[in-house]
Design a protein that fits this description.
The structure holds two protein chains of two kinds.
Chain A (H helix, E strand, L loop, with lengths): L1 H23 L6 H25 L8 H17 L5 H23 L4 H21 L9 E2 L13 H26 L2 H11 L1 H6 L4 H27 L1 E2 L6 H14 L5 H20 L4 H15 L5 H13 L1
Antiparallel strand pairs in A: 1-2
Chain B lengths: L1 H31 L6 H21 L8 H23 L9 H23 L8 H5 L2 E4 L3 E4 H23 L1 H11 L1 H6 L4 H23 L9 H16 L4 H21 L4 H15 L14
Antiparallel strand pairs in B: 1-2
Classes of the chains: A mainly alpha, B mainly alpha.
Chain lengths: 320, 300
């Protein structure tokens, strides 16, 4: 108990420190690494959305829906509305996802277990079906996203990538801090209680459905943020963003990292990107197989993810 | 009128294909409570082995071309039995009775592995085995409509498989035992039913059905990487609509989705994919357990 308090109070400065280190390294690291980290952090934001739901015992096999909405929100707004400011674009994408989540959440929070998983999957496939068939939205090829401006400033050359990286690190840091305080807040703790025993939570006079709804909308917003950042960083969006295998990837990262701590999805996303980069380089035809084997091993031997390794070593220290 | 007939026949063909794909998956779920994400890979493996063997048969000095129609199911049975037995005995055996959602993730990992395994074995170039498809010719309906007899044969096969599955479950002793396992696994064990053997048999049959669907589809498509991934979500939609674990439900779901899709294709082609998942969403919003599923009481 004492240890839990200690680690809770140590998390905020640790997160700030990590964010500062990552931000400062922007001027040192090579461009490809910055790009890789930008994508990894954006992915981590989407995964955070999956993790929120996992904490409530629900696995979303359709988080790509909001990832895609966030990405297309950014792309469409810059293409058709002429918005070029990065912050405004992100806000628009996230807003679109939240509005959508308010509608879908109303229906989805009545379902649990595999029904929840399959319904979220169906929703993302509906979006995929619409995008593939509509030429106004770019159909199967998608379209390119022009580089954004930042509060009126238009960077050029390498500066764009660096600024986007800094933006991603900044957004991630804010989200991580906010999410950490959410995890230890009343609502955050009840979420875990819902996973353990929903009916008893109801007996205590709380509404699990409302809890799950709030979690779902929050998850949607975070995932859209990640999708928007990805769209700006990679400069391209296509319907595959909503395909169910993309969602599977997010579930993979969530399991890889674990759900025990806000840092876990970020660690998971970075490890995933590294595995993927090397696996594609070394064995382009078997990288999915590599992922599958790792996922199986995780589920069988490390069900609480990489973060449980950190916890385990901490406990050893505490008992020594 | 012509359009209506076209819609109905197209819908029936598509529905039978859907039923073939979904039947194995719903049987496995019904008995083992494993929603098998790797089912699409069984489909792909069936399609690949059939396509490669049939094209080899026709490229070598062949005898009667009609033998190729027997090669298709034979391939599926062999491939499905091997892969199903291997996966059940090698992995799933140790995970019986685990959380349903965990099994989704485990079979998702299996799908990733099998997906690349098929690429390693058969490469990334497409295979074609159109000969059996052409062999059977076409039938005309009215003046403008022509359908391939091969496609019409699929309708017959789907009906036969559905009836056989129903009879096996309801009219044989093994089938009755299986229903006991579905109904209450623990009591079945207590009564001396060898549940592990039942599970293994079910998984192998399900895998064979998946491979059979792939093998029978192979002549009508170009067999290339990714066909399994596309199929799996369709199969999900069908069995979720019908109610997980119910053969009759899978048939009803397949018919519903098949007709809805063929209406969309003939009348408003741009909403084709949307319609399939739209139907699924609508059914689940009204009847969460699917058309033929049973409602479960919540456990405290």
């Amino acid at each position: 108990m004492l240890f839990a308090k200690l680690s809770a109070s140590a998390t905020t400065p640790a997160l700030l420190l990590m964010a500062a280190i990552f931000a400062a390294s922007a001027w040192v690291m090579p461009a490809w690494l910055a790009f890789l980290l930008t994508l990894a952090f954006s992915k981590a934001l989407v995964v955070l959305g999956v993790v929120i739901q996992m904490r409530a015992g629900l696995v979303s096999f359709g988080q790509a829906l909001f990832y895609c909405v966030g990405g297309y929100g950014v792309g469409l707004a810059s293409q058709y509305l002429g918005v070029s400011d990065a912050f405004a674009l992100l806000a628009l994408g996230t807003l679109a996802a939240i509005v959508l989540a308010l509608i879908c959440g109303w229906l989805l929070t009545r379902y649990r277990d595999i029904f929840y998983a399959m319904l979220t999957l169906a929703l993302s496939m509906i979006l995929y079906g619409i995008l593939v068939k509509s030429s106004a939205l770019g159909s199967t090829d998608g379209f390119n996203v022009s580089p954004p401006s930042f509060l009126g400033w238009v960077p050029e050359g390498d500066a764009i990538k660096r600024t986007l990286y800094l933006l991603t690190v900044g957004v991630s840091a804010i989200v991580a801090l906010g999410f950490h305080s959410f995890m230890v807040s009343g609502l955050g703790r009840v979420t875990e209680a819902v996973r353990e025993n929903e009916i008893r939570v109801e007996y205590l006079g709380l509404s699990p459905q409302r809890m799950l709804f709030a979690n779902y909308v929050l998850a949607a917003g975070l995932s859209a943020l990640g999708g928007g950042l990805t769209a700006m960083a990679s400069g391209h969006i296509d319907p595959d963003m909503a395909f169910w295998t993309t969602s599977g990837e997010f579930v993979f990262i969530a399991i890889l990292g674990g759900t025990g701590h806000v840092a876990a999805p970020f660690i998971g996303a970075i490890v995933f990107s590294v595995i993927r980069t090397f696996a594609i380089q070394e064995a382009p035809n078997t990288w999915q197989m590599t992922l599958g084997v790792i996922l199986l091993a995780l589920v069988l031997f490390l069900p609480k993810g990489l973060w449980s390794l950190v916890e385990r070593s901490k406990k050893r220290e505490a008992s020594a | 009128m012509t359009t209506l007939i076209a819609i109905l026949i197209d819908g029936a063909i598509y529905a039978s294909w859907l039923f073939l794909v979904a039947a194995g998956m719903t049987i496995i779920y019904g008995v083992m409570r494993v929603l098998n994400m790797a089912h699409g890979s069984f489909y792909a493996i069936g399609a690949y082995s059939a396509a490669s063997l049939v094209s080899w048969y026709f490229s070598s000095d062949q005898g009667n071309p009609y033998w190729s129609l027997l090669i298709l199911p034979a391939c599926a049975i062999v491939a499905g039995a091997i892969i199903g037995l291997f996966i059940e005995q090698g992995l799933l055996r140790f995970l019986h009775g685990r959380d349903e959602i965990l099994m989704v993730i485990v079979t998702y990992a299996l799908m990733l592995i099998l997906e690349d395994a098929t690429k390693l074995i058969w490469g990334v170039n497409p295979y074609f085995a159109y000969q059996p498809y052409k062999l059977l010719g076409q039938t005309g309906f009215g003046e403008h409509l022509r359908f391939a007899n091969y496609d019409l044969m699929l309708i017959g096969i789907a009906i036969v498989i559905g009836l056989v599955a129903w009879a096996a479950l309801n009219r044989t002793n093994k089938g009755r035992l299986l229903r006991a396992v579905i109904h209450d696994r623990e009591i079945a064990i207590a009564m001396g039913v060898n549940v592990n053997a039942m599970f293994a048999a079910t998984f192998v049959i399900g895998a064979i059905l998946g491979a059979l669907a792939g093998a029978l589809t192979a002549p009508a498509i170009s067999v290339s990487p990714g066909i399994g991934v596309e199929v799996i979500v369709l199969a999900f939609a069908v069995i979720v609509i019908g109610g997980l674990g119910s053969i009759g439900g899978a048939a009803a779901g397949a018919l519903l989705v098949g007709l809805a899709r063929s209406f969309a294709v003939h009348i408003a082609p741009e909403i084709e994919l949307f319609v399939i998942y739209g139907v699924m969403f609508l059914v689940l919003a009204i009847r969460p357990q699917g058309l033929f599923g049973q409602t479960l009481a919540r456990r405290i």
